[in-house]
Amino acid sequence: MTGIDFPEFVWVWNRRMGQGTPRHHLRMARWLAARWHGRERELLLMAFRSSGKSTIVGLFCAWVLGQDPNLRIMVLAADLALAKKMVRNVKRIVERHPLTQGLKPHRRDQWAADQFTVNRPVELRDPSMVAKGIGANITGSRAEIVICDDVEVPNTCDSAPKRADLRERLAEIEYVMVPGGTQLYVGTPHSYYTIYADRPRLEAGEARPFLDGFSRLEIPLIDGHGRSAWPERFPSERVGALRKRSGPNKFDSQMMLRPVNIADGRLDPDRLRFYEAELVYAEGNGLPLLTLDGKRLVSASCWWDPSYGSPGKGDASVVAAVFTDEGGGYWLHRVRYLTFDPALTEVDEATQLCRQVAAFAADLHVPAIQLETNGLGRFLPGLLRRELAAAAIACAVVEVASKRAKDQRIVDAFDAVLAAGALHAHRSVWTTPFIGEMRDWLPGGKARDDGLDAVAGCLLSQPVRLSRAAAAAGRPDWRPGTGGIVAESNFVF
């Protein structure tokens, strides 16, 4: 088959099937053809659910085999059944399309359910097309084209370990493709941390997007002018009903291609106000002054939710600091996940953690640390006071016993301040697990919440006022209204 471009190939097939060719199908076909002729080999096709994108990709596979029967295509999907579905579709096209006649082999063993080999002049070990689940062993396979069709589904991306495993398995594609081979990803985002994101997720440790450099085609259901991409099947009334039935998060994710959590999360980190400014300490007229992003700070809360923080095991030990300014704004300046070094045998674990917290307090000029004494915390106040004194840090230690359920405490702390858009978060916070905890958290869920608990403690606590002993210890108190006032009097006795 020569001289027939892919859009015409699609039109001929639809004509034979007695159906029309929607505009967005032609858009996909033209885009795929242009990328193929231009030798662009890293491709991402995202289109709304039920748009027929897998059908178009199946036709594309049949078309390229008609162009070059020696090509080898591997289809990866979230499970084998889904991958086999595309292989069966391509087999059907090869059998029935008038432009692929002569490709079907005579031997039945080369026409199986999960793989097939077309008539080709070259004898190759690998079949023309093969289906694999994302968890399958693909070592030793070779292909000119690897199609990742819906490899990201809730079952492969609803937790951080699953997302990491998915990325690790997809990295194996590099060892399957021959030099100059083509990767084509097809799907919709199922998580804010989707592999299809166009920007890196700093809080997940990404320096660049997973598919950085890929040519992208995105077709959401509704365009920027409010028009449906497929008005014949998705008129405005059906779109409204679909949005209402599926909920805003799922509709945005699956129909508008916006990376959000499909689950209706309670905490939305997109409501945080990003900033990069650092604390500025100064003294004027004998008075200390602490500012942040040009705003004078009036109080601070520092909360430590302790744990032994053994690397990779159990709960995390988290200390957080939140400042408030004169206008009532909240500034989440640091969230630090602490760990101890098991190899440092000359210093016990608790002392290592206390030294880290003491340094944290000194760096941020916090006047007091509130220490949650539930469980492990009951043994730490004395150790922390000792380390603060040893480092000559004027900072009080306030012991706090949490009595409310953690889920309720988190909801009470974040709901109002997020709704008001009053919580700022420093850039460093976005590189910690805290942002991921916000996105994954649901009341009663099993997601990690150690950072959330520490920040909730800061938000719910009242600023601790120190006595003048703090200033006497050598560090001026920067909070307004905490120092003494000397008034001149001219009373005559």
- Mean pLDDT across all amino acids: 88
- CATH homology-level superfamily of the largest domain: P-loop containing nucleotide triphosphate hydrolases
The largest sheet is: 9 strands, mixed
Q: How many DSSP-defined strands?
A: 16
State the helical fraction.
25-40%
**What is the CATH class of the largest domain?**
Alpha Beta
Sheet/helix structural class: alpha/beta
Strand content: 15-25%
- Give the uncertain stretches in residue-range form: 464-473
The number of helices is: 14
Would you spell out the secondary-structure blueprint of this structure?
Elements: H1 6-16, H2 23-37, E1 42-47, H3 53-67, E2 73-77, H4 80-96, E3 115-116, E4 129-133, E5 143-149, H5 154-157, H6 160-170, E6 177-187, E7 215-219, H7 236-246, H8 248-254, E8 273-275, E9 279-284, E10 287-292, E11 295-305, E12 317-325, E13 330-338, H9 349-364, E14 368-372, H10 381-390, E15 396-400, H11 406-419, E16 423-426, H12 434-440, H13 450-460, H14 469-472
Parallel strand pairs: 1-6, 1-7, 2-4, 2-5, 5-6, 8-16, 11-14, 13-16, 14-15
Antiparallel strand pairs: 3-4, 9-10, 10-11, 11-12, 12-13
Would you kindly provide a brief summary of this structure?
31% of the residues lie in helices and 20% in strands. With 493 residues, it is of the alpha/beta class. About 2% of the residues have low confidence.
